[in-house]
Design brief:
The structure holds 2 protein chains of 2 kinds. Chain A is an all-alpha fold. Chain A contains 12 helices and no strands. Chain A has a domain of 178 residues: MetI-like fold. Chain A is 75% helix and 0% strand. Chain A is flat and about 85 Å long. By secondary structure, chain B is an alpha+beta fold. In chain B, the strands form 6 sheets. In chain B, strands 12-16-11-15-13-14 form a 6-stranded mixed beta sheet. In chain B, strands 1-10-9-8 form a 4-stranded mixed beta sheet, with helices on one face. The N and C termini of chain B lie far apart (61 Å). Classes of the chains: A mainly alpha, B alpha+beta. At the A-B interface, helix 2, helix 4, helix 6, helix 7 and helix 9 of A face helix 1, helix 2, helix 5, helix 9 and helix 16 of B. Chain B: This is Peptide ABC transporter substrate-binding protein.
């Protein structure tokens, strides 16, 4: 196990290094100037600005400088926010994205797993069809439509919950529901298929023969095994919920990372693009790692060891 | 049950973590969050409290570093310069005690600063505060872009200080004594006072700025205020919600009604409308085109023509576009009325001019700039076709292919498609290739003259026709289409030198220049002038917008039936 973890950490660092390098060079291929005022500046003024931010250096030199800074934990400063350090920009915006993503994840998986279990236990009844319908709906309605509908019906028409902004828990309810429809549908589909599979296996028949109650069979014996494929998708799904809440953040006017990231790409705010990419990539790589470790805990049949196997 | 307890623990851990997240967000505005969620949030506005939605967070609060509307607007409300633009778009003395003394040649301005003007730490506002801020704006190490942009070619010594590393003290801005500022200009500038209302020229308290160092203007506590309001709550450029409080030490505080203004960043126009409709905010962001027709005739919709004009630039390094008949044909072949009525449908109007309507007025008669020149290059298919045939003959070809550089937003693509269709239908033998690119790319290709036709726009930074006329002089920084007319250059030079101290003559010269640009040379294809539309709750009195730099002033506003 220890050897395995060390090996994984090495590969994680390597992956991150490749991601940073690729992003750095790909970003330089985007034409355009990072200065929003470029149209108003004379050539000599632009030259002075470029020199100030080191953009007049050859690309390999810029790359070496950037990598050196990253190793020291310095992600540079933003152009669009007049020299604000990138770490501050990310720190200031990650809170809402993080809590929204995790809330949607928790609500979505619990609700989705329950939905899947119910569907499996009551196969081919209206409960099953109903939960399948919800799952298909969640997968096929684009989140901006669903978010806008929730906002209009529950916020504007019924007035039950705040329409927008980010000032406390009740402000997060609608966005959480809007964002969780996707994990609900994923978890419900996986759970249903797996449960049906597991419920047909021999050890369940044995448990039944020994007189275990239906409740006990479903939750004690079947669910644990059926969870494994769900856990597989949970890791990457969590990351995509945290990083991909752009649309929901926009509709509910939540000051999160999503909008900032997209804007930074549009205005070529190099250091913000790089910083956010590093953060997202690290989150992703780390969750995949955690999921692999979780396997061995949930399923004793899986044993982790070094590369010899 | 083990699995359930696992999930339970996970949920508990997560909720503790989440609570911490909200805590971080709310810690500083606990007063607001307690009651904001309750149902009677709407009735809170009974006091002098306003809730506004802005299109972005505040990127910058260091006056010399700002280059965007939201920053300029905030500075205009929590700080102040020598002048201020009032509700009638006229510049009025603010920190300046009355009008400045101007030398005979119009090059030296002597401002007296109000005795009762103070910073929020109690320090008086002094002449040195201006000198310090302006020198800082021209220090290449500051990285200010508006500093050199607005000062070079205007303030004596600015160019030398920024480009050649001349000693900052050689800048033409001197503190004669504590309350007297003397500014020396490169040439007489008739709109200089209105320029003093622009945040880049605001003062900064040297001792405070130096004491704060890197932290200066990074949060509400690290800024000094001298305007009608102060920032009560702002955590820096990532903060999506910020609050103004009335500045009781402001010299004109008696005339400021509002006690508190809450701002929220809202990126989506529909969200802004929903929040407005449900009573969660009083003023929306600018409405996107598709929302405007819904509110047509609604008395809460406030609309105004922005002095922002969009036109098609024709790159004269292309041989075909050097031909005046071809240019004139292109300019007259687009049905702009149909474009603004059917495509935009938001109150924007067709532009048959280069200097916008309702922007600047005659120095003596007060007549709009447009009145003397009227419409030029208006839509006329038959005329356009005649010029087109003539042009093709002169070039010795029977068809032309032109690349058209446009923006990459949905709205831009739709209108560019419309223009392409108009041109290809009306001018036989013309093929247009649309190239939709992001803004930064368009700028780069503009500089490199890598286009044939380009949809571009210009919003001015000061209230003077020269902010538009200046664009088209030979080799001008924004010309970038190889347009060069001796006549145009001569007129501009005359306006800037010979008639620099004769406002009426200067005015007429600039009108003549516009006529040369369009009527004689058909150098650009003017397309439309943009209209802004926002929703303002009927309880908001004296809502005030501006044309250049800062967008709104909140000091005249009061709440009430």
């Amino acid at each position: 196990m220890g050897k395995y973890v060390l090996q994984r950490i090495f590969y994680m660092a390597l992956t991150l290094f490749i991601v940073i390098s690729l992003t750095f060079f790909l970003m330089q291929l985007i034409p355009g100037s990072p200065f929003s005022t470029a149209a108003k500046l004379s050539d000599s003024q632009l030259a002075i600005m470029n020199a100030k931010y080191g953009l007049d250096q050859p690309l390999p030199v810029q790359y070496a400088m950037y990598m050196g800074n990253v190793l020291q934990g310095d992600l540079g400063v933003s152009f669009q926010f007049s020299n604000t350090p990138v770490t501050e920009l990310i720190a200031g915006r990650i809170g809402p994205s993080l809590s929204l993503g995790l809330q949607a994840m928790i609500f979505g998986t619990i609700f989705g797993i329950l939905l899947g279990i119910i569907a499996a236990l009551r196969q081919n009844t209206w409960l099953d069809y109903g939960s399948t319908f919800v799952a298909v709906l969640g997968k096929s309605i684009p989140s901006f439509v669903f978010a806008a509908m929730l906002q209009y019906i529950i916020g504007v028409q019924l007035g039950w919950l705040p329409v927008a902004f980010w000032r406390g828990f009740e402000y997060s309810i609608l966005p959480t529901i809007a964002l969780s429809i996707f994990p609900i549908s994923i978890a419900a589909r996986f759970m249903r298929t797996e449960m049906i599979d597991v419920l047909g296996s021999d050890y369940i028949t044995l448990a039944k023969a020994k007189g275990a109650s239906g409740y006990e069979i479903a939750f004690k014996h079947a669910m644990r095994n059926a969870l494994i494929p769900v856990v597989t998708v949970l890791g990457p799904l969590t990351v995509s919920l945290i990083t991909g809440s752009l649309v929901v953040e926009r509709v509910f006017a939540i000051p999160g990372l999503g909008e900032q990231f997209v804007t930074s790409i549009n205005v070529l705010d190099y250091s913000v693009i790089m910083g956010t990419t590093i953060l997202f990539a690290s989150l992703f790589i780390f969750t995949v790692f955690v999921v692999d470790i979780l396997y061995s805990i949930i399923d004793p049949r899986i044993r982790l060891s070094g590369g010899n196997n | 049950m083990r699995k359930f307890s696992f999930l339970l623990v996970l949920t508990l851990v997560a909720s503790i973590f989440l609570a911490a997240c909200y805590g971080g967000d709310n810690g500083s505005d606990d007063a607001g969050s307690d009651d904001a969620g309750s149902d009677d949030a709407g009735s809170e506005t009974a006091g002098q409290e306003l809730r506004v939605m802005e299109s972005s967070a505040i990127p910058v609060m260091d006056t010399i570093m700002a280059s965007d509307t939201v920053s300029f607007t905030t500075m205009n409300n929590v700080m102040e310069g020598l002048y201020r633009i009032n509700a009638d778009q006229q510049e009025v003395p603010a920190l300046a005690e009355g009008e400045p003394e101007v030398s005979e040649d119009g090059k030296v301005y002597t401002f007296k600063i109000r005795e009762d003007a103070v910073w929020s730490n109690g320090d008086p506002v002094t002449a040195n505060d201006f000198v310090y801020a302006w020198q800082r704006a021209l220090d290449p190490d500051s990285g200010s872009s508006y500093g050199p942009y607005l000062m070079e070619g205007k303030i004596a010594g600015a160019s030398e200080v920024f480009n050649d590393g001349a000693d900052p003290s050689t800048l033409g801005a001197k503190a004669i004594d504590e309350k007297t500022l003397e500014v020396t200009l490169v040439k007489p500038i008739s709109y200089f006072n209105s320029l003093m209302a622009f945040p880049t020229f605001f003062p900064q308290n040297q001792a405070f700025v130096e004491e704060q160092g890197e932290d200066y203007a990074t949060s509400a506590d690290t800024i000094l205020y001298n305007g009608p309001f102060v920032l009560e709550n702002w955590d820096g450029s990532t903060d999506g919600e910020w609050v103004y409080a009335k500045n009781e030490d402001y010299w004109d505080a008696d005339n400021v009604a509002l006690d508190k203004i809450t701002f929220n960043e809202v990126k989506d126009s529909q969200t802004a409308v929903n929040a407005y409709e449900s009573g969660e905010a009083d003023i929306t962001t600018k409405l996107s085109s598709e929302l405007v027709p819904q509110y047509e005739g609604d008395e809460n919709m406030v609309s105004w023509l922005e002095p922002t004009v969009f036109w098609i630039k024709m790159n004269q390094t292309n041989e075909a576009l050097q031909n005046e008949n071809i240019r004139r044909a292109l300019a007259m072949a687009i049905d702009k009325q149909s474009l603004t009525d059917n495509i935009f449908n938001n109150g924007s109007i067709p532009a048959n001019y280069a200097v916008p309507k309702e922007f600047v007025q005659h120095p003596e008669t007060g007549a709009d700039f447009r009145e003397a020149n009227g419409d030029m290059l208006t839509y006329n298919v038959e005329e356009a076709q005649k010029f087109w045939q003539q042009g093709l003959e002169e070039l010795g070809v029977d068809s032309l292919e032109l690349r058209y550089l446009g923006g990459d937003s949905e709205a831009a693509k739709t209108s560019d498609e419309f223009i392409k269709d108009q041109l290809e239908t009306n001018l036989e033998g013309l093929t247009i290739t649309l190239e939709s690119v992001p803004f930064s790319v368009r700028l780069e290709r503009d500089t490199a003259l890598d286009y044939d036709l380009q949809m571009a726009g210009w919003g001015p930074d000061y209230l003077d026709p020269i902010s538009f006329s200046d664009l088209w002089i030979t080799d001008g920084g924004n010309n970038n289409m190889a347009y060069s007319s001796e006549e145009y250059d001569r007129l501009l030079k005359e306006a800037e030198t010979t008639y620099a101290n004769d406002p009426v003559k200067r005015w007429e010269t600039l009108q003549e220049a516009e006529r040369v640009l369009l009527e004689e040379d058909a150098a650009i294809v003017p397309i439309y002038q943009r209209q802004s539309n926002i929703l303002v709750n009927e309880n908001v009195n004296d809502f005030t917008y501006h044309f250049v730099g800062p967008e709104y002033s909140f000091y005249p506003i009061s709440m009430g039936e």
